[in-house]
Design goal:
Blueprint (H helix, E strand, L loop, with lengths): L13 H16 L11 E6 L5 H12 L3 E5 L12 H10 L4 E6 L4 H8 L3 E7 L5 H15 L6 E5 L6 H12 L3 E5 L14 E4 L2 H4 L5 E4 L15 H8 L3 H4 L7 E3 L12 H5 L5 H20 L1
Parallel strand pairs: 1-2, 1-3, 3-4, 5-6, 5-8, 6-7, 8-9
Helix pairs in contact: 1-5, 1-11, 2-11, 3-4, 5-6, 5-11
This protein binds N-carbamoyl-L-aspartate.
Length: 298
Amino acid sequence: MAPRNLLDLDDFSAEELMALLDRAEAFHRDPSPRRLLAGVPVVNLFFEPSTRTQTSFAIAEHRLGAEVVSIDPGDSSMVKGESIADTAITLAAMGVGAVIVRHRESGFPYALARSFPGHVVNAGDGTHAHPTQALLDLMTLRQEFGRVAGLRVAIVGDIAHSRVARSNIHGLRTLGAETILVGPPTLLADAMAEEGVRVERDLDAVLPTVNAVMLLRIQRERLEGALVPSVAAYTAEYQLNARRLELLRDGAIVMHPGPYNRGVELTDDVLDFPSCRYVNQVANGVFVRMAVLEALCS
Ligand code: NCD
């Protein structure tokens, strides 16, 4: 049975994830417009800023023929105190088929999904999950290596506040990859270690051992107090730069979900590095979002 919502990747089996990646590849090979969602109103509800995610959802929706409605939440009645449940009833009454939602509160899309009879796609909730980002990351890895199983992927930086890291951990584990989390104790607790997931502190020691390194931005908007001693202290240990690129083994790739902060988690050398896959990741975002909408709505 087709899933109703995409809230996080932990709801999906390896077979279901692979099927989504296969469909995303089919859309990549043939990105021509379709009528799969013809006549279906799809609402984009982004309570937090977004460039990549919001734009690629809108492109994916248009390409599938949906009636695309993007609401600025500042203009919605939620600012007048309307509850999530009542907003859901209102959207359903207008025949809205799917809502794509981003919110600073972890769990918000789950609450919406409880009241909304259509489909809910989580476009990022607080520090919790960002499943379509993880899907596009998995797609990028599979394009590069022909598989995800057996890969070793380092995720570096502010893991504590990263919904991207959390969804990737689920997806990588389900598809049989090993994850190494790398960062300072203030941004990465030892307790994040679990089956298939290691916690390491020494980036220089990890870099020669991985197939891919995924860099994260420090989520300043989610930091309470100074968890990072200083930018200088952080960059000394965890910035990917020209010297550290030399430590990567041949064939290893660099990834970043964006937005990146030049001079913090990476230097310009990283963006110029021939094996940096940031642009491929962004491009794949449209195709995985088409695949998700197709899987949920058709
Ligand atoms: C991320 C997000 O918003 O979770 N960006 C994205 O969607 N590509 C990561 C971030 O904000 O650092």
